[in-house]
Specification:
Radius of gyration: 26 Å
Oligomer: single chain
Helix content: 40-55%
Distance between the termini: 39 Å
Structural class: mainly alpha
Number of strands: 7
Number of domains: 2
Number of helices: 18
Strand content: 5-15%
Largest sheet: 3 strands, mixed
Strand order of the largest sheet: 5-7-6
Mean pLDDT: 90
Length: 408
């Protein structure tokens, strides 16, 4: 038979039997390479925790870490040898002592303990107890850089490679109101394009902490924004260093887990969706003007055009799919806050029933439903803001429609 030898380990009759069931919708089974959209409340809480940590603890952590590194350099010792010889407390800011720091590097101690054949479960338990108990200075330094990342990342929506490459000096304009990027994708003649993005004061204050750290270490001219404290000194910014700080942040704050009890270690690709998510949820919940003010736009329609300009099309589609699935399954707001005609809802339900055999949105696994909605958007489903004026103020409502002539 023509199939013999093609799939040697699959019985021919079984394969023919499967094929006889009809044509498979390949697109519905295609694996996507995207990251799952992190829940909007998770990113919101990350931003809040990061801001509070920077404001409450950033300055004294920077001063304490710089004191240790500079003293070790002056003494010609490694930081670990300096602390072993002279102790740690004398180099710590009083607020760092009050926070609970008693060790220079929990990671170094955990590594040493593992070499002594202490049970790994005990090593891990001691490390995380120490991390969340504020005992390790290096670890708190990484939490600080992770906090900067969890503010700068969501609120600028840039690629991780662009964030990692940011210098400390000159990263802000003279008014400290815009952050300056050398575009990660080459422009005409392979010249890197310079682009400024508006930022809230929070980002400027976070960057001030990085400036203070590098100024005290004497590396302000050459340092990168996401260089991170390490046990041997500052570690040069890289993607792995950047995400190690983000992961330490997630472990420190015990960021929420998904339905399978896996912690949300949010990546920048997920953070890049935050501003558009904030627009959608802000529009339905009536506080989108806070976002408009924060990003210095005159009205919500201008804000929307700005967000669509900086957000790739596939990412925008993922945000729209996540938003609609959340509305249909979790009801974070009254569905009356979005406009969806009953004919549109019926056609979407019909399409879902053909795909999943049910019209009940709540029983479908959310990632599968997001993929289905994303495919429906490609076919003509639209989840977009519609703008109108009331008393001279421009407002918006999210409307779910189907393009004329389209069939889901």
């Amino acid at each position: 038979m023509v199939l013999d030898g093609v799939c040697e380990n699959i019985p021919t009759q079984a394969l023919l039997g499967a094929l006889s069931q009809g044509v498979v919708d390949v697109e519905s089974l295609r694996e996507t390479s995207r990251f799952a959209t992190a829940p909007f409340p998770v990113i919101m809480k990350n931003v809040r925790n990061a801001a509070e940590f920077c404001y409450r603890h950033g300055e004294h952590i920077v001063k304490s870490y710089a004191n240790v590194i500079n003293a070790a350099k002056e003494a010609g010792l490694s930081p670990a040898d300096l602390v072993e010889r002279y102790g740690l407390r004398k180099y710590l800011h009083e607020d760092t002592i009050a926070m609970g720091v008693t060790r220079f590097s929990l990671g170094a101690e955990a590594h040493a303990a593992s070499q002594r054949h202490i049970a790994m479960s005990d090593v891990v338990s001691q490390y995380f107890t120490g991390l969340r108990g504020n005992r390790g200075l290096v670890e708190l330094g990484r939490v600080l850089i992770g906090s900067v990342a969890q503010n700068v990342g969501p609120l600028t929506a840039r690629r991780s490679a662009e964030l990692v490459g940011l210098p400390v000096k000159g990263v802000l304009d003279e008014r400290r109101a815009n952050i300056i990027f050398r575009n990660g994708k080459s422009g005409v003649l392979k010249i890197r394009q310079v682009e400024e993005r508006p930022i809230p004061k929070l980002i400027s204050d976070d960057i001030r902490l990085c400036e203070l750290l590098h100024s005290r270490l004497g590396t302000l001219e050459t340092g990168r924004l996401f260089d991170a404290p390490g046990a041997l000194g500052m570690r040069a910014a890289s993607k792995s260093v950047f995400y190690r700080c983000c992961d330490t942040f997630a472990d420190y704050f015990e960021v929420a887990c998904d339905a399978r009890k896996r912690r949300w270690y949010v990546r920048q690709h997920q953070n890049r969706k935050f501003l558009v998510l904030a627009f959608y949820y802000g529009t339905t919940q009536g506080n989108v003007h806070t976002l408009r003010w924060m990003l210095a736009h005159s009205d919500v329609e201008h804000l929307w055009h700005y967000l669509t300009k900086i957000t790739p099309g596939d990412m925008l589609r993922e945000v729209q799919a996540y938003f609609l699935v959340d509305a249909l399954q979790n009801h974070p707001f009254d569905l009356s806050e979005i406009d969806m005609h009953e004919v549109v809802f019926a056609e979407l339900s019909d399409s879902m029933e053909r795909r999943f055999g049910t019209r009940n949105f709540e029983i479908i696994e959310s990632n599968m439903l997001e993929n289905f909605i994303s495919l429906s958007i490609k076919k003509g489903l639209e989840i977009l803001p519609h703008f109108f004026e009331v008393g001279g103020v421009k407002l918006a409502r999210i409307a779910v429609t189907i393009r004329n002539g389209s069939r889901l």
